[in-house]
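>> received
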Amino acid sequence: MNILLLAAGPSDIDSHDGAYPLCLAEFDGVPLIQHIIESISPLEPSNLMVALKKNEIDRYHLDSVVTMLSSSAKVISVQGETKGAACTALLSVGYIDNDEPLLIINANEFLTFDFNEVIDDFRKRSLDAGVVTFSSIHPRYSYVKLSSEGFVIEASEKNPISKNATVGFYWFKRGASFVSAAKEMIRKDAKTNGIFYICPALNELVLNQLVIGTYQIDLDDYHPFKTERQLMQFNAG
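>> returned
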């Protein structure tokens, strides 16, 4: 399995610990990026990629941090700002445009559910793609609308078209499916607030009649760090 960890995006969170990036924020003395990579480890990925900002690699030696956590990991150096997570993900196209499964995880969240259990569920249901969801109506999240059979029929960003908000955990049976969908989304200029996100790429899979399912989790298993308040609340808890 190919796993891509996206840790190169902009953060709306003010630094609370010097000038260090969010991925180095510590919880119980352990940096967030370590928590995430250790959560990924049981999946035994054949190819782990971590997208990081070049200036943060240079300043904080994040490439050394990543390779200490996973000696086989590939660091994707991102120069400047991209037009969003989908564009950042496509920087690894040489590694993910294939028939192997692909898991994309955002690095601005702390996930405490069993990754293997979720992916096993997606596989047993013979899905072409799967996304983890939780219940919300806040417009800061991405959303999917489901058919009566429970399959995704529409995806949106920053627009609650249902109560099925998504976490940054996107699984594709074939990496090539995501690459094709992301490129088509960009070709159509399907941006949200000038940015290309991962979730709306699912619409291209829907148009191609691929089967996309969801896995619902409890709020206790999802800790997003999209705002300073969310970060402080997690630390306080």
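>> The mean pLDDT is 91.
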